[in-house]
Amino acid sequence: MAAHGLRTGEVAERAGVNVETLRYYERRGLLAEPARSIGGHRAYPPETVTLLAVIKAAQRLGFTLDEVAELLDTGRRRHPTADLRARARAKLAEVDEKITDLRAIRGSLEEILAAECDSLTHCTCPACPMPFADLADPAASPPG
Amino acid sequence: MAAHGLRTGEVAERAGVNVETLRYYERRGLLAEPARSIGGHRAYPPETVTLLAVIKAAQRLGFTLDEVAELLDTGRRRHPTADLRARARAKLAEVDEKITDLRAIRGSLEEILAAECDSLTHCTCPACPMPFADLADPAASPPG
DNA sequence: TTGCATTCCGTACCTGGGTACGGGTTTACC
DNA sequence: GGTAAACCCGTACCCAGGTACGGAATGCAA
Questions:
Q1: Which of A30, A73, B68, B117 has a beta carbon 3.0–4.6 Å from A79's, enabling a disulfide?
Q2: Mutation to test the A interface, candidates B63, B95, B117, B125, most A Cβ within 10 Å
Q3: CB-based contact (8 Å) between A100 and chain B?
Q4: Which nucleotide is nearest to B20 (CA to C1')?
Q5: Which of B95, B10, B78, B93 lies closest to B46 in space, CA to CA?
Q6: From start to end of A7-135, where are the E strands?
Q7: What is the ipTM of this complex?
């Protein structure tokens, strides 16, 4: 009996993360405490692997673990309460901002790829414009 | 004489970063070593402020300082060599991936905001789908 | 049931990205 | 020319996010 549930090693391998990371995420509240065998070994539901991929993806985008936790929490329960809706809206704004910034970077990179500066042979680019200047917002909002 | 150039305090304040951070970035190679006064005090060109904004923006997107340095280096010299072009292209791909992921998150958030689950009063959402599942890529490429 | 791989837990350690400290110069203003 | 504010440098510390360690207990297979 009780063959259901993946063990830590399996989950870790499938998700491509360290075993310790699972325990760490559990402590951090990103992973719910899984069921346990009689002897106390964890038995994870298979979706855990997907969840870990989600977490890692969100992290790559610059979300902190706390933010990821919040994001997941918001997403978990559909039909959010007013409070949750507000958080979702806030996250949405953040995400939009990130997308905007990324597009600016993207534009600069494409420009660079396209640029020939009139001629590769003659141009020493004495006064090349600031790279990514279109991205930099002088009125940067302070964190907090 | 030598009133040209901003001092560390000015740059730091305008860019909204700590003075120590300037020295740190200099050590890391993100900021070029600025000119110095006779007495050894740094005199920064005004574009430094913009550059710092760029760095901070890129960081918010999940780029490491090393990556930012690389990005800047790529962007600095227009009409890149073949090698530089390759790096720019690689970055471009990364950026596109990030944008794709962010759009997935964005979509989920909007869904959440739009969702009423038929009725807020009756739906207990017994089997709500995985949040952000569209973002998780099971074939996640291992780092390195 | 013996035995080896896994897992358990707590704690210590590591890297990245800064920030703070402290004692000594340099500037800038009166 | 005196003095406070700003700056210098090296070094030590801090937080986030993991990762490693090590000794005991469990799981599974022959």
A1: B117
A2: B95
A3: no
A4: C19
A5: B10
A6: 35-36, 42-43
A7: 0.78
